[in-house]
Amino acid sequence: MTRAVLRLHEDRLPAAGDPVYLPALGRAIYVIEGDVTVEFASGCASQGAGSAWLGESEIALAAGAGGARLLRWELAAASLRDRGALRSAPSVVSAVKLAAEIELDPGFGWLMRCDRVGFPKGGVAYTHVHQGPGIRYCLEGGIEIESEGSTHRYGPGEAWFEPGPAPVLAPTSAETETVFVRGFVLPRGCKGRNSIRYVRPEDAQKPKPQRYKVLGERFIELSRD
To answer: The pTM is what?
Structure first.
């Protein structure tokens, strides 16, 4: 197995501030607020609120006139656990929301995906598993994660990790709609396909209230220690 670290940072870039430089790593960047230009060797991409960019190359981030608030998932070899800190960007406020050590089977090729999931009031994700690990971040509403005998509740601005094969039941707030965004790592065979599998056959036949929007996915290469 290949050991790696999947981590999530929340970055706040000031308006028209200096560019932020990031080394080559598999990553997904989601724009919560504002806009940012992602510069890479072959060009650049302008990303507005609600969009995501994925890639592996070294990049520069340049915030727009109103600044930007970003979520930044990165997949690194276990030996590079602390590489994501923005020590040379003093004008940026950056916080590690969550980091999790994971093991990936080198017999698979892997991809990174960023998507957005929305639930109506009182919606529930029936007991399910996924094909790979990921970190979720709640944007709106609230969600309970019931897994392996424990229950945790998350609200806006909070993040949680799901390893993938551990069954999860996830009821959401009855008072308001719930939205979360996630970055996760999946076998390449999942490209363009839903990664969820329902544990109970009867649940697989029920109407599903959640709605998905894939914001981007990209094949990645695993770094080894």
So the answer is: 0.95
Please name the CATH architecture into which domain 110-220 falls.
Answer: Sandwich (2.60)
Name the amino acid, one letter, at 88: S
2-104: what fold? Jelly Rolls (2.60.120)
| Residue ranges per structural domain of the chain | 2-104, 110-220
Fold identical between 2-104 and 110-220? Answer: yes
**What's the sign of the alpha-carbon dihedral 106, 112, 113, 114?**
positive
Phi, psi of 201 (to 5 degrees): -55, -35
pLDDT by position in tens, the chain (length 225): 889 999 999 999 999 889 999 999 999 999 999 999 999 999 999 999 999 999 999 999 999 999 999 999 999 987 765 666 677 788 899 999 999 999 999 999 999 999 999 999 999 999 999 999 999 999 999 999 999 999 999 999 999 999 999 999 999 999 999 999 999 999 999 999 999 999 999 999 999 999 999 999 999 987 655
In angstroms, the CA 118 to CA 124 distance is 10
